[in-house]
Predict the 3D structure of the following.
Amino acid sequence: MTLTRALAVVRIVHGSAALLLLLEMLPLCKQWLQPEVLQLPYASWYPSLPRDAIPVLLTCWILSALAFLAGWATRWAGCVLAVVLAYVLFLDQQFYSNHHLLLVVNLVYLVLANCGAEWSMDARRLNPEQQAAAPALANPWAARLLQTQLTAVYLFAGLSKLNPTFLSGAVLAVYLPREGFLAWPEAWRTQELLQPLAWATVLGEVALAGGLWLRGLRTLAMIGGGILHLSMFALLDRSQLLGILSFVLTCLSIYVLWLTPEADAGVPAQSSSAPATPSVAAEHHCS
Amino acid sequence: MTRRLFFLLLGLQFAVPAWLLTQPRPARFGWQMFSDYRLAPDFFLVEEQGQEQPISAARYRIAFRNDVPAEEALARHLLQLFPEAVAVRWRVAEQPCGEVRR
């Protein structure tokens, strides 16, 4: 798979994840607007959200997510979407979530990577000659930042669990489901079982951070990552379903970048893997 | 320029979460998902005579999060909403954790 196509996949998934995030945030925003509910801004100078501006914000969110997903004016759509999501993320401390933050950060990298170069409405407007030159338009260094970002997520998710509470198995005991199809039996909630499981979780996450970069271990790491993410659906309650889905999609879509020829190249310093036709580049940079 | 931007962003990706490992867990912006847990505290309005009235905090906040220390802010908010209360206390598993007085 070429890098531009891989980026297109990541772009489409991130656009969809932004719409899922909207579905997750809508009830929270509605609750936040109730006069009796606490508002907890990060800073007093941060511009608050007037009630009248909410429809405008939501319209911007939906339209920019759809445009980004479809690859229409991709860079502008990505910029608007990233700004809207970042604004909402920092509107109130209670809105914080790791998948929301990851989505904002990844959107910036996707815009920098020129993720609308292929499989997009922008690309369809190009003539065949320009379309043929499209694979050269991706910015490998920005695509690499998407990969390193995911590595940081896995690495620090693992390292932060190196604490006595998590390693004792107590955190798993709290989060493992007690009801439903995937309920963890009470007889298995012993320290003898949960402690090794906690260590395995830490080692798995740290190994995942490195394994994706090693060609020999990549397939195994991808399978392990898939299992890790799918297990989140089993561990967490239904109220967090949209958030988990958004996080899982955001993370797993990045795996596609390890299936490109650029995955095993060194540090990509240049904006493009090959010189692009100036007119094509100009059109894409304007999109 | 591109190379500098790349290494700047790469540095931020790892430096910020690395620094946050030195802070109490779970810290926001550090990818510390499920690294620790806290039980949601129970809130009580304290009347002038010293009597405590339990209050459902869920109605007055968006959601309880491990990584958002909002207890004191919520207590101050409850004091504004309930002028008859002289203080708001919160406890976790029956253990006193904090109090904000009017």
